[in-house]
Amino acid sequence: MDPLLGQLLTPKYDATLVLLSYMISFWGALLALQCAKSMFRKDGSLDWGMTVCAAASLGGIGIWSMHFLAMQAYRLSVPISYDAVLTAASLIAAIVISGIALYLAGGHGQFKVSGWLAGSLLAGIGACVMHYMGMYAMNLRATMALNPATVAISAVIAVVAAAAALWLAFHLTRVLHRVAAALVMALAVSSMHYVGMYAANMICTSDAPLIPLKIGGNYLDVSVYAVAGILSLCIFWVVLGRSMDDNKLADSFR
């Protein structure tokens, strides 16, 4: 049954996709923690390869992919597609801002509170920008009204989650500790997303806005997982290569 004009649309969630979105956020966070420890060389210089991997892991997989999969789990009684330009811009924003935040917190290999606080604020704001940009990328027969108080709560969660993520990225050395931290980070990212979605009220309109380029269909979730998987393999290859190079360097000094 088609909804009536002016009707408030009630969302439902696909539980399987909600779980998958959490899992991909966990994986991205774990990769980012692994890469972040090698972002700076012993002399304090920046390793660009590891920095790009850390930014892509945290921003591209841990945050953006989680967000987009969770958007696929969000179901309304009207079809939903996405503005391709805004969607791509939200991905780029998530990766770039995550990279800058990690760089600030890393402090050329020496963790500094001032850099950590600046990076946390930047990453939190960046996560909000990415999230709400992604929400406005939705193309559907509805207008979106946001509750300012709930938006503010989501922003606070984003900043606190970013602060915890950046601190953990440069203070954990054991693999099991990183796994536990990644589980917590994924929970924080997911919480920010769903609080942000709760802030939105969707009111039915007659037609969806016309946009020049949009994406949609039943296989977007599979596509996100496929791209995240390919990106993960590339990152793993870079991390493995760095580890092998470090071992060769260590052997040369023996």
Outline the structure in words.
The chain is mainly alpha-helical. It is built from 7 helices and 8 strands; from the N terminus they run ββααββααββααββα. The chain has helices spanning 15-36, 48-73, 84-106, 113-136, 148-169, 175-198, 220-252, and strands at residues 8-9, 12-13, 74-75, 81-83, 138-139, 142-146, 200-204, 214-215. The strands form 3 sheets. Strands 1-7-6 form a 3-stranded antiparallel sheet. Strands 5-4-8 form a 3-stranded antiparallel sheet. Strands 2-3 form a two-stranded antiparallel ribbon. Helix 4 crosses helix 5 (148-169) and helix 4 crosses helix 6. The termini are far apart.
Into which percent range does the helicity of residues fall?
A: 55-70%
Output mean pLDDT: 85
Number of helices: 7
Which class do the helix and strand fractions yield? mainly alpha
Distance between the termini: 74 Å
Strand arrangement within the widest β-sheet reads 1-7-6
Largest sheet, in brief, is: 3 strands, antiparallel
Radius of gyration: 19 Å
Estimate the global geometry from the Cα principal axes: elongated
Task: Indicate the low-confidence ranges by residue numbers.
Answer: 248-254
Count the E strands: 8
Percentage of residues in strands: 5-15%
Give, in order, the helices and strands: EEHHEEHHEEHHEEH
